[in-house]
UniProtKB/TrEMBL annotation:
Its cofactor is Zn(2+). The keyword DNA-binding does not apply. The gene is pepN. This is Aminopeptidase N. GO terms for molecular function: alanyl aminopeptidase activity; metallopeptidase activity; zinc ion binding. Belongs to the peptidase M1 family. The keyword Magnesium does not apply. Residues 231-444 form the Peptidase M1 membrane alanine aminopeptidase domain. Residues 552-872 form the Peptidase M1 alanyl aminopeptidase C-terminal domain. It comes from Beggiatoa leptomitoformis. InterPro entries: Aminopeptidase_N-like_N (IPR045357), Aminopeptidase_N-like_N_sf (IPR042097), PepN_Ig-like_sf (IPR038438), Peptidase_M1 (IPR001930), Peptidase_M1_dom (IPR014782), Peptidase_M1_pepN (IPR012779), Peptidase_M1_pepN_C (IPR024601), Peptidase_M1_pepN_C_sf (IPR037144). Residues 449-547 form the Peptidase M1 alanyl aminopeptidase Ig-like fold domain. Keywords: Aminopeptidase, Hydrolase, Metal-binding, Metalloprotease, Protease, Zinc.
Length: 872
């Protein structure tokens, strides 16, 4: 790129806006050729008698008319460039500004601003998309009252929606009709939304705890009318939960959700009118998996929870994004923990954090949850801001207790309802409500990276004390974090010992150590025998904790820890040790032999009748190649693949009868969406995957049978993903059959692409190349592009082929997407962020592609930022 140097924006440069926009009255005339947007704003200078120019943002707009206080402005009274409208001289008192602009939503493939999806109009304005609709002060600390009139052809677009309440409507003589909406709540422009199209409504209602009736509406393309009920139920559950847990009630008379097929992200919390990726709305047992059901409930809840954490109290500037996102993710995680199983949800969340966020921390895109600068804000909707941000919120709750956290939340809303605020405001509310000093806590907001804590334990048999010494590894220029570490001590019988700190009189089974110094030692008294410590229970902080353990000790914790999270964790650590030792053997050309201790530990889990099924399924799943690679100084691509496959194969053989028993015991549970039925499916499908590793006629027949006979997508997809890794004809038959069955359902067809991209057979890359040519592949549709290419790029051994062909393909795709959809291009190029973690040959191959990309003449800011940081 030879851009006119895309400029970074810095957090320290924040200034209040010079003008506020009190109200905006919008008028859209939607047309197949050009859409006209007429806007009338009441603008107030921040201070009286100021003489600063008014600078509005606007992109890809054609200005047709401009009036100030009703007077048309002459061209020499204002300037327009690619991204601004500047009026050097404006009145010193409130004034009105009217603009008319032309836009072309039908040509908008970036899917930000106003665009078309399956023939319908919709909008996406976060972070800075509103400026692609009309000229505005497009920043979250400018909060205006909106009225919106939409005019469109009545036949094509019978449904016209925007934020707030529908206040007027009517018909025109030319086959067009109009609807006017008014949103009583002032809001930042990123929460604006408009939808127009031919949509079906799945309606319901919710009565708030104060007795107000709220109308709930899920809007979908007509053919999807039978896939909305779960979304509706999820919404009602989320509304109830927020009342009960946080005392927060919904505030409008209507709540609308629209499902669209083309969407860059998961969903968007626009006030009263959420726009959703259809993937997080539509489901039916035969089309959606258990995970899809759970994700839908979680995303619906997430967007709903934003109504308070994000909309009523919003962000002052985009550096504060985690204020709304970290908090809202924490709220949706807590909701799912209560709706499903707390331990299972915690394990799933920690897996995401450790595989994606810890990796981001190790990459050139590493940033604190509150970044200091950005070139393109859309690049900062990251696992760090979202998921680590949620962990940081969880830390408050761990430190203050659930009640203390609630007191902090109450004070936060009491102080800031209707305002645009900062992460510091949130921290102050937590501290003040609990009379606690949280100043050291700011480091979680301004220091990037994963804290590392080394722990040593010493038992003193004479004194009957056990001491833990914890030491933070602090990188240069950083300071010690404030870290709560939850600890338990297990006795020889596997039971928790009562814990009493030398400084306390009462005892507990789990104790929170507050680590604030670089090094601290805590001593437990009255410990009758040398204990086995269980550290960082339920992953009480987003850190890496080092404590050296023998395999026997890990197997012991895996069998006995009363904290289900740590039981799972011990199993993962044991598997990791075993895999890394085997890797050393493989690299030394020694024969591979699986440690019987590990195989037996797995057997014990298989035979444990007390263990809940979903946890059991998780405990029987090995760490991924991606996660294992991250633990290495240099990712051993082939070695990790070979060794991990070997371990899976051995476990399949060693426990063949037990896998079969588990499979059969859980196979006939009838379908339902209850936790117990889900657990049966999880268990049996883990068993099926192990069995199919043996690639025998018998195991393939099991998968085929499940594939043809299942009445639900969880089982069908799972069987298909087993079959794609088999070597006979069953694979082609199943793939053809699945395609024929589901070719009319895009969300299910996405699964067909993904399953093939995930295969571990050596021809996967060639298959992906062929699938790119398939008539159902479409790079413009983000779900479809991700289903094939993002999924493939996570298939470590296949994507990182030694010949670099997959890298070249990925770069080709990035360059195409760069023009079509920069946000998706930037996500796709991010796989190369980790290039320095590979061997020299692969480094060179990836660097070649990065260099090729950065030399592209018209690189978007999105891609430029990621690639330039990667190459630096
Ligand atoms: N605020 C939404 C996520 C979102 C962010 C950006 C988008 O377009 C660039 C779209 C959605 C959420 O957290 O759900
Ligand atoms: Zn969000």
């Amino acid at each position: 790129m030879h851009p006119e140097n895309p400029q970074a924006i810095y957090r320290k440069d924040y200034h209040q806006p010079d003008f506020f926009i009190e109200s905006i009255d919008l008028h859209f005339s939607l047309d197949e050729d050009v859409t006209l947007v007429h806007s009338q704003m009441v603008i107030r200078p921040r201070t009286t008698n100021q003489t600063v120019p008014l600078v509005l943002q606007g992109e890809s707009l054609v200005l047709k008319n401009l009036k100030l206080n009703g007077q048309v402005l002459n061209t020499h009274d204002y300037q327009v460039d690619k991204i601004h409208l500047t009026i050097p001289t404006v009145p010193t008192q409130s004034f009105t500004l009217e603009t008319i602009v032309e836009i072309k939503p039908q040509e908008n493939t970036a899917l930000t601003g106003l665009y078309k999806s399956s023939g319908n109009y919709c909008t996406q304005c976060e972070a800075e998309g509103f400026r692609r609709i009309t000229y505005f002060l497009d920043r979250p600390d400018v909060m205006a009252r909106y009225t919106t009139t939409i005019v469109a052809d009545k036949n094509r677009y019978p449904v016209l929606l925007s934020n707030g309440n529908r206040v007027e409507y009517g018909e025109l003589t030319d086959g067009r009709h109009w609807v006017k909406w008014a949103d009583p709540f002032p809001k930042p422009s990123y929460l604006f939304a408009l939808v127009a199209g031919n949509l079906h409504c799945h309606g319901g209602k919710f009565v708030t705890r104060s007795g107000r009736e709220v109308r709930l509406e899920i809007w979908v393309e007509p053919q999807n009318h039978d896939q909305c009920e779960h979304a509706l139920q999820s919404l009602a559950k989320a509304m109830r939960w927020d009342e009960e847990r946080f005392g927060l009630e919904y505030d409008l008379d209507i709540y609308m959700i629209v499902a669209v097929s083309d969407f860059n992200m998961g969903a968007m919390e626009n006030k009263g009118l959420n726009v959703f990726n259809a993937k997080f709305v539509l489901c039916r047992p035969d089309t959606a998996t258990d995970d899809d059901y759970e994700n839908i409930e979680a995303v619906i809840a997430h967007e709903y929870f934003h109504n308070w954490t994000g909309n009523r109290v919003t962000c002052r500037d985009w550096f504060q994004l985690t204020l709304k996102e970290g908090l809202t993710v924490f709220r949706d995680q807590s909701f799912t923990e209560e709706m499903t199983s707390a331990a299972v949800k915690r394990i799933q969340d920690v897996r995401i954090l450790r595989t994606s966020q810890f990796a981001e921390d190790q990459s050139p895109m590493a940033h604190p949850i509150r970044p200091e600068s950005y070139i393109e804000m859309n690049n900062f909707y990251t696992v760090t801001v979202y998921n680590k941000g949620a962990e940081v919120i969880r830390l408050y709750q761990t430190l203050l207790g659930k009640d203390g956290f609630r007191r902090g939340m109450d004070l936060y809303f009491q102080r800031h309802d209707g305002q645009a605020v900062t992460c510091d405001d949130f921290r102050a509310a937590m501290a003040d409500a609990n009379k606690m000093d949280l100043s050291q806590f700011e480091r979680w907001y301004d220091q990037a990276g994963t804290p590392v804590v080394d722990v040593l334990g010493t038992y003193n048999a004479l004194e009957k004390t056990y001491s833990l010494t914890l030491r933070q590894q602090i990188p240069a220029n950083l300071q010690a974090w404030h870290i709560p570490i939850a600890v338990g001590l297990l006795g020889k019988n596997g039971q928790d010992l009562p814990l009493q700190l030398a400084t306390e009189t009462n005892s507990n089974r789990t104790c929170i150590i507050e680590l604030r110094e670089v090094e601290q030692t805590v001593t437990f008294v009255n410990i009758p025998e040398a204990p086995i410590p269980s550290l960082l229970r339920h992953f009480s902080a987003p850190i890496k904790l080092n404590f050296s353990r023998q395999r026997e000790e890990l197997a012991f914790l895996m069998a006995h820890d009363s904290d289900p999270f740590n039981r799972w964790e011990a199993g993962q650590q044991l598997a990791q040790q075993v895999i890394f030792d085997l890797l050393a053997d493989w690299q030394a050309d020694k024969p591979l032999q699986l440690d019987p201790l590990f195989s037996n530990a797995v057997l014990k889990i298989l035979q444990d009748t007390q263990l809940e099924g979903s946890i059991k399924a998780l405990m029987l799943t090995l760490p991924t190649e991606g996660f294992l690679g991250q633990q290495q100084a240099e990712v051993a691509v082939e070695g990790l693949f070979t060794v991990r496959q070997f371990v899976l194969q051995q476990l399949a053989q060693d426990h063949y009868t037990q896998w079969l028993t588990i499979y059969k015991a859980n196979h006939h549970t009838p379908y339902s969406n209850e936790a117990s039925a889900i657990a049966c499916r999880r268990l049996k499908n883990v068993a099926l995957h192990y069995l199919c590793r043996l690639d025998t006629a018998e195991t393939t027949a099991l998968a085929e049978q499940q594939f043809t006979q299942s009445d639900n997508m969880t089982d069908q997809q799972s069987a298909l993903s087993c079959l794609v890794n088999t070597t006979g004809t069953a694979k082609t038959i199943a793939l053809t059959r699945f395609y024929t069955q589901w070719k009319e359902n895009p969300l299910v067809l996405d699964k067909w692409f993904s399953v093939q991209a995930m295969s571990y057979l050596p021809d996967t890359f060639e298959n992906v190349q062929a699938l790119l040519q398939h008539s159902d592949f479409n790079l413009k549709n983000p779900n479809r592009a991700r289903s094939l290419l993002a999924v493939f790029s996570q298939n470590q051994a296949q994507f990182h082929r030694a010949d670099g062909l997959a890298y070249q393909l990925q770069a080709d795709i990035v360059l195409q997407l760069n023009t079509l959809n920069p946000q998706i291009a930037s996500r796709f190029v991010s796989v190369f962020n980790h290039w320095r973690r590979f061997d020299p040959a692969r480094q060179a191959l990836m660097q070649t592609q990065l260099t090729r990309i950065i030399q592209h003449p018209d690189l978007s800011k999105d891609v430029y930022e990621v690639v330039s940081k990667s190459l630096n």
